[in-house]
Amino acid sequence: MPEPEWAPLTGFRVAVTSARRADELSTLLRRRGATVTSAAAIEMVPLPDDDELHVHTEALIAEPPDVVIATTGIGLRGWIAAADGWGLAADLTSALSKARIVSRGPKATGALRAAALPEEWSPESESSREVMEYLREGGVDGLRIAVQLHGATADWDPFPEFLDELRAAGAEVVPIRVYRWHPVPRDGAFDALVVGVAEHKFDAVSFTSAPAVAALLMRAAELGVADEVLDALRTDVHAMCVGPVTARPLVRLGVPTSAPERMRLGALARHITDELPLLQSRTITVAGHVLEIRGTCVLVDGVAKDLPPAGMATIRALAHRPGQVVSRGDLLGALPGGGTDTHAVETAVMRLRTALGDKNIVATVVKRGYRLAVDDGAA
């Protein structure tokens, strides 16, 4: 069979907020045809320079916990590497080996085993909820529990309900923020990305960590576009998250999210590839052609037709009510630039017909406006 002339994400615009492995995710999406804008949402505090982690590490060595909960593989490996730099790696692993160790998923499990710290239990689902249920079944009252967290700032903490629930069950909780972060500087590429989300310039925005979500929401508030960003994420800019922990800050705000079954970067790229065309495209049969309207292009019978902004605005306005007449005034209001001359509509329609390859797709209704020539029954 002949190869299609378009890739699965042709015509879709995806924002990437990752601080780590952003190039890898961007490459995977571009190979699938997406137009990608990448700007890291956060910067990590280097572990060897993290005085808070150093102090907490020494405290755990002095008083080993009863239970350790490992949540991420990279966090656990980084913690032990930082301890090694402080000359404390052997003491740290010795202290942790005295505790019951629960792992949240296979990556954390692999890091534990590499450090000769075998886990007592790990859920197949990689779910924090299952970890909580397991611990509560065995009882945590009076236990000292160290929880390795995957990032925090002074104003934002991951897993707040998880930690609060452990405390409510009687445990003494020692949060270990294995790596901390702060938002990237102002007036850079990330600010432009946030404003782009507010202006609905993307079809999807991807998140690979809850801190990145928090950073985007905080920066939107600083820029005065918090309401616009939330409106975009609740409507036609789809939040694609690597997993439920990453999605949690958005879910709390009533933002629809979707995530792959496996919390992996490749799985996220495949998930976006599979889901975005279902969420953010519209297919109509017009003048004997199958039109699929995407973020920056239209597929006509499976052939991608690149359209300028005026052409995309016109086809979207016509497709909003397929087959019905749209007045020149309404089309003028949909065109970018805020012009007042209806001649701009005639020019946009003429160029749209040329780009689509069949002038019959957009029909003129004399003295009334234009309509898509929707086939009988297709409207």
From TrEMBL:
It comes from the Bacteria. Keywords: DNA-binding, Lyase. It is an enzyme of class 4 (lyase). Residues 281-374 form the OmpR/PhoB-type domain. This is Uroporphyrinogen-III synthase. Residues 281-374 bind DNA. The keyword DNA-binding applies. Its EC number is 4.2.1.75. GO terms for biological process: phosphorelay signal transduction system; regulation of DNA-templated transcription; uroporphyrinogen III biosynthetic process. GO terms for molecular function: DNA binding; uroporphyrinogen-III synthase activity. InterPro entries: 4pyrrol_syn_uPrphyn_synt_sf, 4pyrrol_synth_uPrphyn_synth, OmpR/PhoB-type_DNA-bd, Sig_transdc_resp-reg_C-effctor, UROS/Hem4, WH-like_DNA-bd_sf. The keyword Endoplasmic reticulum does not apply.
